[in-house]
Each structure stands twice: as structure tokens, then as C-alpha cells.
Amino acid sequence: MSYKYIFWGILFFGIALFSSCLNSEQVSLDALHDAQIYSFSASAAYDSTGTLANAKFAIDQLNSQIFNRDSLEFGFKPKNAQLSITTAYASAIKLYLSDPDSIYFWNSTDSVAIDRLKTIEVTAQDQTTIKRYDFKLNIHQQDPDILTWTKIQGSYIESPFVEQKTILMDDTFLTFYKTSAGIQLAQTTSPGSVAWQTLSISSLPNNTIVSSILCGYSPNLTNGDIYTAYALDTENNIYSSNNGISWEKIISPRTVKALYAVSPNTPDSVLTILDMNGELKFAKTGYDDFTTFSIKNSNIDFANFPTTEFSCISFSKSNVHSSKSYIVSGGKTASGSLNDKIWILQEDDNKISSTWVQPAFQTQGSTLFKYDDKVYLLTTGNDEEVKLMISEDIGNTWHVAESNQALPDNFSYRQEASIVVDTNNSIWIFGGISNTNTQFTEVWRGRLNRLAVN
Predict the structure, then answer these.
(1) For residue 350, how many other CB atoms are within 10 A of its CB?
(2) What is the Cα 322 distance to its own chain's centre?
(3) Which of 63, 269, 345, 449 has the highest CB neighbour number within 10 Å of its CB?
């Protein structure tokens, strides 16, 4: 019996060894014909910022292309660079350069004029198999941080009117404006066109605070998001609408004093202030209604906090989903005093903490908006000056927009403009009030070059 086991053991060992040899031979044969490039990178001694060294190059084996997906910064001037090219067992690598045309074998140490590099040719060990890769170094051809402003529309609603507010509901822009006949509505899906449709509104009273109108939505993966607009009137009544045309009064058990903004992470919930037996408290609405509220504890001094005529946005850093902030500028307090501060509210579970800054610019009549993961603010100064302010730390510090983002000289002084950012990364500025208290009926559009999608 022992000899039989020894025999079978030797047989299995021999089979395994033979199979291993075949696999090794197959690996060697594959390597012999392998002319692929498996990784590519570049660096340069003159590149003190590491622009080139940090570039990630993609290798498209199917189409034989090597390129950097993210374009290098505008103004980068590539020169000679050290290349790092990984292959299996290539026998030679040949580089093709242009302007002027030249060809030479790469020895892995020579620097290469990467701005002239057009083709990389790899020869496998067999000296026969050859694979050529087209090479492209992508560099932004225009300043990606230029914010281009264009006047799009000269008159989208008819005068006279005394108050206006534009919101975005799904993909439709709705402008609500107050005339002697009541609240009117004009809407369009393309603010740059003249195709604004004027519609009659039902069940939204004349004492509606037009500036209070805002829009939230309930996420729905099956049938699409359900959008709802809300409005507050001077008697603290709340109204809702799913289309901006037909409105319904909500019978709320609470006295709502102000609507601030839709929550940054729960778009069907609105931050409000409630009057609870003479005491003001922050509260968030329940799921898509104003019948249930989550009361928030707060350290804020409501005597100095604006409750009317303010601008407010909710803000959540794109890389920090758990952060929930609200920034509030301008407006008046419950006693009618002007607010000259910018308030930063931080929501954490059942608490809202607050800080404020005293900016060196005017906050009355200002408009806040979120763009490019920053907080922007349109405001005015002396001598009919219009300023675009930017904060990169959720409203704590501010700086004036550089010349490549500043509003053009023909953008007139205005306060209380509506500003909407759409899904195409366009900033839309609607209307506003001039220094002679005249309502503007013009539309401006702005967009950063690097955020353009078409």
C-alpha cells in the first residue's frame, strides 16, 4: 500500500510541475509580445508648484492614447521634463516630437520637451510587436476662474410693480411680483429668451411678503422630485404650492414669524422662527409641511437678529455632508432696527449656535448666494458702487471679487436683486431696486469658465 501512495504522489507532483512550466512559458511568451505602457508620469525641476508632478495621466489602451484628464492650470508653460514610463519588458521606446519634427530613442534618463511630445512608440521584446500611443498634455486655454457676465434680457415683466422675487422650481424660473391688482407670476425655462409666460395666481393674498417666497423639494427616486413653494403673509399665515400658480393656505398650529432657507441636507425642511407665547425660537418644519416642527435650542440674541427683509442661504460644504450652516445678511429685527451684521448659524442635532461678523461693507439690500462651494454676496457701496463679495469660510471673512470675477461697469447700482444658480452652474441675477427706487426688469447671467458645461 505504501508503494502505491508513493507512486501517486510522484505522479501528481510531476503533473503540477509540468503545468507550472507551461504557465511560466505562457507568461514568458506573453511578455515577449507585450508592447503596452502600464503607467506614465512626468516631473520637472522648474515646476516648483508640482503642477506637472501632480498631474494624473490616463492610458487608453483601446484607442492608444495617453493624456491628463484634468487640464493643467491656465498659464502653465511646459518645458523639458523627466518621464517615468512603465512597461512589461519593452526592448525600446521611441519618442516622436513636433515643431520641429524629430524622433529619438528614449533612454529613461534624458529630459524630454513634453510640450512637443506627440507619439510614444513601444517595441516589445520580440523586436516585432509595436504599439504607438498618441500623447496629449491638456492645459486650460483660458483662465478657468474668469466669471463672465452678460446682460441677457432687458424686460421680462411689465411695470409698474413694487416688489419682486424670482425662484427656481425644478427647471422653471418663476418671478412673483406685486402690482395694484395683486400678486402676479411670470415664468420661463429659459431666462435668456423673450418667452416669459404671464399667469394668474389663485389663493395667494395681496398681503403676501413676496421676498419670503422660497422653494424646497421632496426627493423621489421613482417619480421624480416633488417641488413645493412656500410663502408667508403679514399676518403670519403660510401658503404652499406645487406649481407656483395654485396656492393653498396651511393651517399651522404655530405662529411662523419668518422663513429663512431650505435645510442644506434635507430639502423638504425649512428653517423658520416661531413666536411661542412672545418668545422667538428657531424651528425646522417636519416632512414637507408646516404642521409639525422641530424646536431648536439656540444661544442667539433674537433682539438683534433680523426677522424681515433679510437675505439668507443654507450652506453645506460639498466635501462635508454633515455640515449644516445658514448665513443671514441685512434685514430688520423684530423691533425694526437695521441689521448691519452677517450672521452664521450652525445646526447640530437639536441646537443652533450662532456667531456674527461686522463687515466693512453694507449689508442692507444685499443678496447672498452659494457658488463654486463659496458664499457670494451682492451689495452696494458709496457713489453708486456695486460690489461682489466672496467668503471661502462660510461667511467669517470676506474679500472683494478680483477683476476676473467683478461685475462689469454697465451693471447698475441695485439692491434686493434675486439671484438663482441653476444646474448648469449659471448665476442668474433678476431685477433689483435702483438708487432712485425704480424696479429693474433686466436679467444678467454669469458663469465661471471652468464650470461651463457646454
Answers:
(1) 10
(2) 17
(3) 345
Q: Which fold has domain 147-451?
A: Neuraminidase (2.120.10)
| pLDDT tens sequence for the chain (454 residues) | 455 545 445 445 444 444 444 444 444 666 789 999 999 999 998 888 899 999 999 999 999 999 999 889 888 889 899 999 999 889 999 999 999 999 999 999 989 999 999 999 999 999 999 999 999 999 988 888 899 999 987 789 988 999 999 999 999 999 999 999 899 999 999 887 777 999 999 999 999 999 999 999 988 767 788 999 999 999 999 999 999 999 999 999 999 999 999 998 888 899 999 999 999 999 999 876 899 999 999 989 999 999 999 999 999 876 655 578 999 999 999 999 999 999 999 998 889 999 999 999 999 999 999 999 999 999 998 767 899 999 999 999 999 999 999 999 999 999 999 999 999 999 999 999 999 999 999 999 999 988 875 4
- pTM equals 0.76
The position carrying cell 411661542 is 276
What's the rounded Cα separation, in Å, for the pair 205 and 247?
Answer: 10
Question: Hey, is 27 helix, strand or coil?
Answer: helix
Residues in CB range of 247: below 8 A, 6 or more apart: 201, 202, 203, 204, 231, 239, 240, 241
Q: Assess contact for 120 and 135: CB atoms under 8 A.
A: yes
Residue extents of the structural domains in the chain = 37-136, 147-451
